[in-house]
Design brief:
With 195 residues, the protein is an alpha+beta fold. It folds into three domains: 38 residues; 95 residues, GMP Synthetase, Chain A, domain 3, CATH 3.30.300; 47 residues, no CATH class. It contains four helices and 13 strands. It has a three-stranded mixed β-sheet, with helices on one face. Strands 1-4 form a two-stranded antiparallel ribbon. Strand 12, helix 4 and strand 13 form a beta-alpha-beta unit. The longest helix is centred in the N-terminal third of the chain and has 25 residues.
């Protein structure tokens, strides 16, 4: 290969046209990395890790994710097992639905009224209402989340407790009262059985 041809190829490669193309490709690659990192770092609010504190209880173990409903069952099971005379306990709670989240929103209302008159003296009024709602989004640490006004916890449909020691009427009554108190549910939604 000739030196002049090699110099010509290098000059052509380093020309403004090729450098501009390389810069465009580099910018696209950087944007793709930023967008993909947003999708990879999403986490849900209804999950909790076994290593995170749960109120006054710290659960230790592997990094297993629990829903809020499972956390309620876990904490209820622990408190029931700590009652005197109670052995191993199993708890099942059924909920009406999942957690309902009410996001903040910007509402824009507009009313347009048009009055038309025809040649014979008749009048026609046209009114239109337009309501636009957009959810308010908060930008926190490179994530976009809706701004939450209120979180409504699910209602308890029923509770079943199966416990060692529940054959004793006094222990059964203690378990029954504890469940009603902790979950704020009426007695007809709670059943306690012996193991």
């Amino acid at each position: 290969m000739d030196k002049d041809k090699l110099k010509g190829m290098i000059k052509e490669f380093l020309s403004k046209k090729y450098i501009a193309n390389i810069l465009v490709l580099l910018a696209i690659a950087i944007m793709a990395l930023i967008v993909s990192s947003d999708f990879l770092t999403k986490d849900t609010k209804t999950k909790n890790s076994f290593n995170e504190p749960l109120g006054d209880v710290l659960v230790q173990g592997t990094n297993i994710q629990m829903t809020e409903e499972e956390i309620v069952e876990y904490r209820l099971k622990n408190i029931l097992q700590s009652i005197g005379g109670v052995g191993a306990v199993e708890v099942m709670i059924t909920f009406e639905m999942g957690t309902e989240i009410i996001p903040a929103s910007n509402t824009t209302k507009s009313t347009d009224t048009t009055e038309e008159k025809d040649a014979s003296g008749g009048t026609r009024v046209i009114a239109s209402d337009n309501v636009t709602e957009t959810i308010v989004v908060a930008n926190e640490a490179n994530t976009h989340r809706p701004l939450v006004l209120k979180e409504i916890k699910p209602k308890v449909n029923g509770v079943i407790v199966v416990a060692e020691g529940a054959e004793d009427v006094v222990i059964k009554a203690k378990l029954y009262d504890a469940v009603k108190t902790v979950l704020q549910v009426p007695g007809h939604k709670v059943q306690v059985y012996s193991k």
